[in-house]
Write a structure and sequence with these properties.
Layout (H helix, E strand, L loop, with lengths): L60 E4 L2 E5 L4 E7 L5 E7 L7 E2 L7 E4 L10 E8 L2 E12 L4 E5 L7 E8 L6 E11 L2 E10 L4 E14 L1 H4 L4 E10 L8 E8 L2 E4 L5 E2 L6 E8 L5 E4 L19 E11 L7 E15 L2
Parallel strand pairs: 2-8
Antiparallel strand pairs: 1-3, 3-6, 4-5, 4-7, 7-8, 9-21, 10-13, 11-12, 12-21, 13-20, 14-18, 14-21, 15-16, 15-17, 15-20, 16-19
Length: 342
């Protein structure tokens, strides 16, 4: 499937998860990367990525998950990753009202587990102060709590009839091409979706939009959307150093929206799971379709919003560091979306 047409998402910011390196931490982010506004991974070839790979000397602390949604009564565990040596920990909880962060008695380990979450925990921020011989750092995470179970959509078979697939390239003429197919075996397990990208120019980018035909959430009948969780297994088939990425996609009223700041590079050469948790309407950027009117919720997650089709976007971007043409490829399996309501 050759790509034709398309437009750029301004200020696309990719949180780079380097699965191929076996790292569970974000090593770079921001929208200033490539010449088209897309970061690329050519910096890995010269060990010059933002923050560096193994170059971080300042104390840091990052909590996983950074955002999470659970149902009332649920149990949630937060774990901090840090380079602080001989570390001590103290967790605290700040309610949604913005009051002071109150230390949690006994919460002095790298992992804090909250049991029996309730609606008073909705919107609360949990943070941990890490102190050690080489300095101090602070990590933060946020919890959302729903009174109802999530509505789950998932697919691991990827029949062609179940998915609408189309590609967008920049530049649209003489630029990148992409092909997407269903592989009957080799997934995690069984069938999976696979895509190949060829980027003949610098700069250039290409995306494939996957819309699940049966994964349609109707706020009018099911209720307003509070948060969404997206997850899939991915595997990189790149041999050039340019890693493809995936990001959550929703379609509503003829428009497409991408959760661009939740895009993750698929770098692992074995099947690995990536998750984006607790996404709200503000996390999705308008990509194309009819313009949003002034004051119009766009996307509209309210109880009178139009049906929302769920999906995934996969792509690759080339800006510098690798001489074209560059080929890269990836696959994904066990796609799952949970829609949370209040």
């Amino acid at each position: 499937m050759s790509t034709r047409g398309g437009r750029l998402v301004p200020g696309l910011a990719l949180h780079i998860l380097i699965g191929a390196m076996g790292l569970g931490a974000i090593v770079g982010s921001g929208g200033g990367g490539g010449a088209l506004g897309f970061p690329d991974l050519s910096c890995l070839n010269t060990n010059s990525c933002p923050g560096g790979i193994g170059n971080t000397t300042f104390p840091f602390a990052q909590i996983f998950p950074g955002r999470v949604t659970t149902q009332v009564g649920g149990t949630v565990s937060f774990t901090v990753a840090t380079n602080v040596e001989q570390a001590s920990y103290q967790w605290c909880r700040q309610p949604a009202s913005g009051a002071a962060c109150t230390p949690i008695a006994g919460a002095t380990q790298a992992t804090y587990t909250l049991t029996g979450a309730n609606l008073n925990d909705d919107g609360a921020t949990f943070s941990v102060a890490v102190n050690g011989s080489n300095g101090s750092a602070q990590g933060y995470c946020q919890l959302a709590v729903s009174s109802m179970p999530g509505v789950i959509y998932q697919d691991g078979d990827f029949l062609d009839t179940d998915w609408a697939v189309n590609a967008v390239a920049v530049p649209p003429q003489g630029g990148p091409t992409a092909s997407a197919t269903r592989a009957a075996s080799g997934g995690n397990p069984g069938a999976f979706r696979t895509a190949d990208f060829v980027l003949p120019l610098v700069p250039s980018s290409v995306r494939i939009f996957y819309g699940a035909r049966s994964a349609v959430y109707d706020p009018v009948t099911l209720g307003a959307v509070y948060r969404m969780d997206f997850a899939e297994d991915c595997i990189s088939r790149s041999s050039t150093g340019l890693l493809p990425y995936t990001a959550p996609l929703i379609e509503q009223s003829g428009r497409r929206f991408i959760a661009s700041t939740s895009a993750i590079y698929c770098g692992a050469t074995h099947w690995s799971t990536v998750r984006r948790s607790s996404l709200g309407a503000d996390d999705f950027e308008f990509f194309d379709g009819p313009a949003c009117a002034a004051g119009e919720p766009c996307p509209n997650f309210s109880a009178n919003g139009a049906p929302i089709r769920l999906g995934l976007v996969g792509g690759a971007t080339l800006s510098n560091g690798l001489p074209p043409p560059v080929q890269t490829a990836h696959g994904f399996d066990n796609w799952k979306v949970t829609v949370w309501r209040r």
